[in-house]
Amino acid sequence: MLKLDTPELNSDAGNMALSVSGDERAELEQYRHWIKNLADVCESASQGNLEARLLHVDVDGDLERAIRSINGLLDYTDAFVRESKASLTASANGKFFRKVLLRGMRGSFKQASEVINSAGDKMKHQAEEIEQAGVRRLEMADAFEKEVQGISTIVSAAATQLHATVQSLKEVTERASQETTDAVESVNQTSQNVNVVAESTVQLNHSIQEIDSRVKESTEVVQQAVNESEHAKEFMSGLVEATGGIGSAAKMIADIAKQTNLLALNATIEAARAGEAGAGFAVVASEVKVLAQDTAKATDHITDQIRHIQGIVDDAVSNISTVSSTIRKVDEISDSISTSISEQSQVISTIHQNVENAAEKTAQTTDSIQNVSATADETSHSTRDLLCAANDISQQSESLNSAVNQFLATIRSN
């Protein structure tokens, strides 16, 4: 490129100055001036200063056209840059109504402006979509928060209720376990008592059977005494003629009195063994004993008074009748005692059977209570596991609430 102010050009100009006129020299200086200004403006524009212009143009021709074209290019470029900057700055701030003014734009500037305006429209559309998406995102976040909080509230309430229920169930199972343990101990003690009662009823039944046997023997003896007294009454009519027979009868009566006394003593002992059941029989036995002693005394008296037997025959007959009547009463009482003892024996047998049934039922109850106790223990273990699960659910619910709150905060902050 040829520079206008080079030494060669200056030298040529000096040589030309010798052969040009003054007007031509002035025109040449004018060209040199505008070309220098034109170079300065272009250099300033190349450095980004688009405000520099070539003013007061006093030339014409191609140079004028070049100067005005440079000014026009700078005007277009400056306007395009200003409009583009304003439009893009507004778009960056979300104000998409600011467009690049197309009036006066030509060629590539107009095309670039249209591209920028089109890009602004697209940015506006995308911003609206982003805004709508943000609104939808916030609406979804609100709905999600409401839904999750509702679920979390339900889960938390359910976990709290479950915890309270399981705690109550745990207390109930612990009480049930303790009560079943106490019940097992009580049933075991009852079973032992029932077994003792069963053994006692067996022993009592044996005692009553023994008493019944003794009473039957006593009844037989009393019946024999009745028979003997009847024979004594028969022989009493011939007492005067058979004094020796009276002595024998008196001796026999004495023997019977001794035997009756012995039986009465035995009956008293057996009645004492029978306890309350033999109390009545003991009274009768005591009376029999007294009667036996009286009979012995009467017999002794008869023996002593044999020499005077005729004088007291009537008294002897009366005494024998009394003895006979008493023995009959003893026989009747013995029969009554025997019947009562038989009935008591049956009752005690029934009691014994019932006691055995009670012992069997008690054993079954013990097994059932032990099964209940085992089930209560298993339930207690299960409730402890369920309580741990309820605590885990409550903790997970709290963790879920925290995570959801963080998630929603992140969404809303964007």
Describe the structure.
This protein is mainly alpha-helical and 414 residues long. It has two domains: 7-98, Four Helix Bundle (Hemerythrin (Met), subunit A) (Up-down Bundle); 185-387, Methyl-accepting chemotaxis protein (Helix Hairpins, Orthogonal Bundle), CATH 1.10.287.950. Helix content is 86%, strand content 0%. The protein contains seven helices and no strands. It is rod-shaped and about 230 Å long. The mean pLDDT is 76. It is a multi-pass membrane protein. It is found in: Cell inner membrane. Residues 310-372 form the T-SNARE coiled-coil homology domain. This is Methyl-accepting chemotaxis protein 3. One of its GO terms (biological process) is chemotaxis.
Summary keywords:
MCPsignal_dom, T_SNARE_dom, 86% helix, mainly alpha, membrane, Four Helix Bundle (Hemerythrin (Met), subunit A), transducer, 414 residues, Helix Hairpins
Short recap of the structure:
Residues 310-372 form the T-SNARE coiled-coil homology domain. By secondary structure, the protein is mostly helical. The protein is built from seven helices and no strands.
Mean pLDDT score, rounded? 76
How can the largest sheet be summarized?
A: none
Q: What is the SS-derived class?
A: mainly alpha
State the low-pLDDT regions, or none: none
The beta-strand count equals: 0
